[in-house]
Design a protein that fits this description.
The chain has 189 residues and is α/β, with parallel strands linked by helices. It is built from six helices and ten strands; from the N terminus they run αββααβαββββαβαββ. Helix 3 (32-45) packs across helix 4 (62-72).
């Protein structure tokens, strides 16, 4: 997706050989026009699938997931990182190792929002180690819902997440793939 690559070139900040900061348009300050284009691109890429729900994890994946849900005209469900008192005991629970927080995080979805007859598209902002996707897959398995694929805004090919998902025969569609972040430069695939 050339529009996204251009924004990364102009505003992305390489903080290390593993960290790309895109806070100015993707996950702190959000550009809604870009997010709508991202949602439309995911709709196009998954047009061959019957999708009834979009699933993400809070908070950075919500904008892309919401715009994808809007273009598909389906509900968006997001896994919460803290279990509120309003969620019953029979919630769907996954565990992820947060890369940015460097700690384990429990994620939770109320069971009534993912049902066995749902066809779910997972959307997230980054794919690096694949921890968030694996946690969401655990929640999907508990629900009995059908996974149609995983849509990623930015995939870091130099980390194992995408390889792990593809090895599980999961369809992964990444809008931008990055080969490396060496010497302060973003090298696209």
């Amino acid at each position: 997706m050339e529009l996204l690559k251009e924004r990364i070139r102009l505003e992305g900040k390489v903080l290390s050989d593993k960290v790309l900061k895109v806070d100015s348009f993707l996950n702190h300050q959000i550009d809604p026009v870009l997010m709508l284009a991202i949602g439309e691109e995911f709709k196009k890429r998954f047009s061959d699938c019957k999708i009834t729900k979009v699933l993400t994890v809070e908070a950075s994946g919500i904008a892309a997931a919401l715009m994808t849900g809007l273009t598909l005209q389906v509900p968006v469900v997001f896994a919460k990182k803290k279990t509120p008192s309003t969620i019953p005991d029979n919630a769907l629970v996954g565990s992820i190792q947060s890369y940015t927080r460097q700690e384990p995080v429990e994620i939770v979805v109320q069971d009534e929002y993912l049902q066995p007859d749902d066809h779910v598209l997972i959307i997230d902002d980054f794919l690096a180690t694949g921890e968030a996707s694996q946690g969401l897959l655990s929640i999907m398995e508990q629900s009995g819902a059908n996974l149609v694929g995983v849509g990623i805004v930015i995939e870091k090919l130099f980390q194992e997440g995408g390889h792990t998902l593809r090895k599980q025969n999961i369809r992964v569609e990444s809008l931008v793939q990055i080969k490396s972040l060496k010497n302060g430069q973003v090298i696209f695939a």
